[in-house]
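Forwarding these from the shared drive since the link keeps breaking.
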Amino acid sequence: MTIPNGNILVINSGSSSIKYRLIALPQEQVLADGLLERIGEQESRIIHRADDSGRLNEIKQSVIAADHHQAFKAVFEILGENCSVDAIGHRVVHGGDRFSGPALVDDDTIASMRALCRIAPLHNPVNLLGIESCLAHFPGVPQVAVFDTAFHQTMPPHAYRYAIPETWYSDYGIRRFGFHGTSHHYVARRAAEFIGKPFDRSHLITLHLGNGASATAIANGRSVDTSMGFTPLEGLVMGTRSGDLDPAIPLFVEQTENTDTDAIDRALNRESGLKGLCGTNDLRTVLEQTNAGDERARLALDLYCYRIKKYIGAYYAVLGEVDALVFTGGVGENAAEVRRLACEGLSRLGIAIDEAANSDVTGAIAEIGLAESRTRILVIKTDEELQIAREAMAVLDKDHA
C-alpha cells in the first residue's frame, strides 16, 4: 500500500466542529481546507477554501448539522464527488499507552480507541465518529489514526508515573500521558532544521499556547516530560482550565458546597483558568483589559505567564542544556507580551528576548532572541494537519514495504 503522489485528507473531529484539509504529497500543496462549526446548534456554518490555480478561494455558507453524521455529510458534499482522496489521516486525542506512533485503522485500532473513551470521554468518541463516517463514505481508502499522546510515549517512568497507590496505576492505568504531541513534534522538527542541528541531537523546550496550553521538554528529539498529565487539565494555566492545583482543593469544595463530581469537573475544566480569574478565556481580551488598567486581568496575565516561566525553568533543569525555546499555538504565535513576560528575568539561563524582533514577528518561523544569547528563542507557526498527513504517509509506506 503506497501512494507516492497521493492526496491525504486530514480530519480533526471535535465536540462541536470538524476541521479538514486535503494535502497533496510529497509536494505538500494544500488543495482544500475548511471548518464546519456549531454542530448541534440551530444554524451551523462551514468555511471552505478550495485551490484555484495556487490560491485558496473561500466560501462561507450555512448548513444543517444537528449531529456529527449530518456535519460529515455536509463536509463530503462541499468537497465534491470528484474529490480525489488516496488516504485519510485522523487526529485522535488519546492513544493511551497502547499507541506510541500513528496506526493504520483496522478493527483492532478501533476497538482500542473505543476502550480509551472512558478516560477521554469528550474527545475519543467524536474522533471515532470521524473515522466511521470516512470508512462509510470512502470505502477501501486506507486510513491512519495519529494520536496526540503518541509523541510523549518516550517519557521515562520517573516522568510519567505519579506517586499514588500502585493499584491505581496497575489496575486503572493512571499515569501522565501528555497531549498536543502532534504540534510539539512538528515545531520541534522545524526548530531543529532552522538552527541547523540534527533532530536526534536537539534539546528543546516547546510551548504550545492556545486556549489549551502545554510545555514539553525534548532531549535528543524525544519527549522526556510534558506539563499535561492523565488528562489535559494538568500543567499551565489555560483559557478555561485551572492547570496545576493542590489535589485536596476539589475535595474541600465538594464537601464545603455539598456538590457533586460533575460540578467540580465542570468548574475546573470550563470555568477556571483565565476565565475564572478575570471573566474571559480570550487572551486578546485579557491583554486589552490589562492595558485599560483592569486589576483582575493584570493578575490573570501575570499568573498565566508566571506559570509558563516556572515550566521553562523546570525543563531547563531537566534537560541540562537547551538549544532553543519555541513558542507556538494561537497565543504563542501572536502574543508578544506573553512571550516577553514568560522570558523576563531568565537571562542567566541564556534566555533573553530581542524586544524589536519580538514585536515584529512575521512568517512561518521567526527568531526573537538576542543574538548573543546561549539559547535561541523561536516563534514557529504550528501545522498539525501537515504533520498528520506526513505521519499517515509514513505508516502507509511502511505498511507497503
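-- next protein --
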Amino acid sequence: MQGSPATDPDADLRRALSRHRALATGMLVGMGGLLVGTYSMPPGYWTDMLQASAKAGVVGGLADWFAVTALFRRPLGLPIPHTAIVPNQKERLGRALGRFVAGHVITEAEVRRVIGRLDLARILQGFLADPAASKPAAVAMAGSLPRILASLEDGRAKRLMVRLLPRIVSGPAGARLVARVLRAFVASGRHQEVFSLAVGRIKTMLTEREDALRTAIASRIRAEGGALIGWLAGATMANRILHAINAELEKVQPEDSDLRAAFGEWLRQEIDRLETDPERAEAIGRVLRDALSHPSVAIWLGDVWARLRTAMTVDAAREDGRTVALLSGLFANAGTLLAEDAAARARLNAAVEGVLIRLLPSAQTQLSDFIAGVVGNWDARTVADKIELRVGRDLQYVRINGTLVGFLAGGALFALLTAVFGGVAH
C-alpha cells in the first residue's frame, strides 16, 4: 500500500527498490539484446559461445524474475499455482514470525542481558531524586486515590477496621503502642495539662456542690458520733474538711508542686512497666481489646472511617495537599536510599529481573499471538508491500546474479561440451 511521497514513511525504501529493480530488469533486457545481436554476427566458435552464454543468461534472469515476483504477486497477473505466496500465506507467515520473535528474540538470556546493561535501579534512582520528574507521578498517584477509596465498600472497610484494631492493640503490641503514645505525651508536657484539667474540674465540682457536701459530712458525723456531737461540731468539722480539701487543691495548682512532680514520676514508671512487664502489657491489651470490641466503639470507628475517607479524598485532589507531599517525600527517600546503597540497587535489579523472568513465558505467548494477529489482519497487498520493501532490494540482486551466473554457466557449458563432443547443437 503506497502513500504520497510527503507522508509515506517508506519513501526511501521505495526509491531504493525501484533503482535496484530497474538495474536487474535492465540487465535482463540487455542480455536479451545481446542474444538477438549474436544472430547478426559472423558464424564461428566465439559467436556460438556468446550466443549460448546470452541464452543461458536470459533463461537464468527470467527464472529468477519469476521466482522473486511469485513471492509477492502473480507474474504478469496470470493465475499460476503457488504464486503470490506472501499475500496468500499471511496468516501462516504471521504465526511463524510471532513464534520466531517470541522464541529467538525475547529470550531469557536476552532479558537478563538487557536488564544488566540498563541498570533499572539507577534509572529509577535518577527519576525519584528529581523533584521535577517525580512530582507529576506523585500528583497522578494521589489523583487515583479518590477512585480507589470510592471502589471500597464502606461496610466492608468498617468491618475490617473493627476486626483488625482489637487484634493490633491486644497483647504486647498494644501495650508498646500505648507506651509510645504516653511517652510522647509526657515528653511534650501535655500530661500536666490533663492534670490541671482534672484539678480544675474537682474544684468546680466542690464549689457547685459545697452545700450538699457540707450537709452530707455533718450527717455522717452525727451518725458516727451521736446527735449531740453532730449538733455541737458537725457543721464546724464539715467546714474544716472542705476548707482543707480546697487548700490541698490550691497547693497542687502551681506548676512546680510536689504532687505534680509525683504524678509525672508515677506516669513514667507505669510507661516503663508497660514496656517491660508482660503481665501489665497483657492486661492493657485485654482492656483495649474489650473496649474496641464494644458495639458503641464499632459505631465510632465507622464514623472515623467515613471522616477519614472524606478528608483523604479532598486532600488527594489538591496538588499542594499532604497526600502529594507525602508521596513526594517517599519518592525522594527512596531515591536517596538507591543512590547511597549499592546493595539496594542490586536487590531491586534482581527483583525486577526475577519478575520479568517469571512473566516471560506468558509474555512470549501473548507477543507471538499479538504479532500473528497484527500480520493476519493486514491487507494482503499491505503485507506483500511491507515485506518487499525490506527484502526486495536483496531479491533484485538474486535476479542480477541469476542473469550473470546463467551467462557464465552457459559459456562454460558450451566450451565443455564443444571440447568433449566437438560441436553443440543450439
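Residues 380-421 form the longest helix (42 residues). The chain has two domains: 12-88+379-421, 133-318.

- D.
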